[in-house]
Amino acid sequence: MNLKALQYFHAAARYGSIAQAAAHLHVAQPAVSRLIRKLEQDLGVRLLTRTAQGVSLTGEGDHLLARTAPILKLLEQTRDEVRNWDQEPAGPVALALMPAVAPLVAPLLVRRVRDQYPKVLLSLSEGLGTVISDGVLTGQFDLGLFHADREVPSLAITHLLDEPMFLIGPEDGAGDGREAIDLAELPNFPLLLPEAPNPMRRMIDRLTADRGLALDIRETVNSTAMIKAMVAAGLGCTIQSYSFFHEETQHGSPRFRVRKIKGMSRNWSLARLEGRPAGGAVLAVAGVLADIARDFADAHYRQVPVG
After folding, report:
1. Within a domain: residue 77?
2. Mind spelling out the 3-state secondary structure of the chain?
3. Is the pTM of this model over 0.90?
4. Domain total for the chain?
5. In a domain, 74, yes or no
C-alpha cells in the first residue's frame, strides 16, 4: 500500500470530504481522489462511499482506518524523533489515565510538560484498566497509567507507587478523621463499588475473599462521579484512593468521612508497548509522571488527616 495514499485516505475519512482533505493536506483535490481510487483498486474493495454531501467509510474502509491509524501515528512520531534527535523532546504523546487519578494527575502533568517540554503535544484520555492496556497494545496510546494487578503480555509495566486505600462515607460529624479501620470491619458498611472486571474491585474481592469476609454491596456503580455523588447524598460508602476526595481536602470543604483501611493499597503503574522504542517525547512524559508519583507519595498523603 502506498503511504501517501493511506495518508490521503485517512484525511478524507477524518473530514468526510475529499475537498476538505485536500485543503488540509495542501494538495489539489484531483490528486487526493486519484490516489484514494488507486488504493481501492490495489485492494480490490471500495473504501469510501461518495455522495454529493461528502464521503463516508464502507465496512472495509472502517477496518483499514482502524488498522493503519497506529502505523501512521508511529511513522509521524518517528519522523519527529529523528528530526529532533539532538534537540529537546518534541512531538505528540498519547496518554491514558485511570479515572480515579485523572483529575489529580492531569493538571499537574499538563503544567509541567508545558513548562519543561513546550514542544511536546499531549493527547489525554481516560479509561478503565482494560481499555488502557488494550489501547497501549494496539498503539492507540503511547503510555497508560493504571492499576496493574496482573502481568499483561507484550506490555512493559513500571511500578510508580502504592497508594493507601480509604473507606469513604458521608460526612456525619463523627470522629476527627484520624481513625483507621481493619479489613475485617468492612462488612459492617453498606458499599457502592464498581463491577468485578474493574481492577480495583478485583483487588477488593481478592483481599476480602482471602479472609472469608462477605461485603454488603448495595449497588454496583461503574462511574466514579456517580459513586461520589451517591456517597455525598448519604446512600452508602465506597472504597477509594486519596484522589477521590482530594478536591474537598484542598479547598477545606469536606463532604466525606474518611478512614484509612489498614493493609489495603493500590499501585500506580505506567505501561508502554514492550519492544517498541520510546522516543524522547514519550520518555520525557514518562519521567514527568514518575516525578508526579514521587511528589504525590511524599506530599499528598501527609495532607490527608488519617493515621
Report:
1. no
2. CCHHHHHHHHHHHHHCCHHHHHHHHCCCHHHHHHHHHHHHHHHCCCCEEEECCEEEECHHHHHHHHHHHHHHHHHHHHHHHHHCCCCCCCEEEEEEECCCCHHHHHHHHHHHHHHHCCCEEEEEEECCHHHHHHHHHHCCCCEEEECCCCCCCCEEEEEEEEEEEEEEEECCCCCCCCCEECHHHHHHCEEEECCCCCHHHHHHHHHHHHCCCCCEEEEECCCHHHHHHHHHCCCCEEEECHHHCHHHHHHCCCCEEEEEEEEEEEEEEEEEECCCCCCHHHHHHHHHHHHHHHHHHHHHHHHCCCC
3. no
4. 3
5. no
- pLDDT tens, position by position, 149-202: 777 788 999 999 888 899 999 887 554 445 789 999 999 999 999 988 787 888
72 — pLDDT class (breaks 50, 70, 90): confident
Domain extent for 12: 3-68
The dihedral formed by the CA atoms of 185, 205, 235 and 169, expressed in degrees to the nearest 10: 50
pLDDT of 125 over the 50 cut: yes
Quote the pLDDT of residue 261. 93
Structure-block grid coordinates of residue 113: 510538560
Contact present, 45 and 69 (Cβ < 8 Å) = no
CATH number of residue 246's parent domain = 3.40.190.10
Whether 240 and 278 map to the same domain: the answer is no
* Same domain (yes/no): 282, 229: no
Residues 253 and 280 grouped into a single domain: no
Specify if 41 maps to a domain: yes
* pLDDT cut 70: percent of the chain above it: 89
307 falls within a domain: no
Same domain flag for 259 and 178: yes
Nearest in space to 197 (alpha carbons), one of 98, 244, 130: 130
Beta bridge mates, 190 = 216
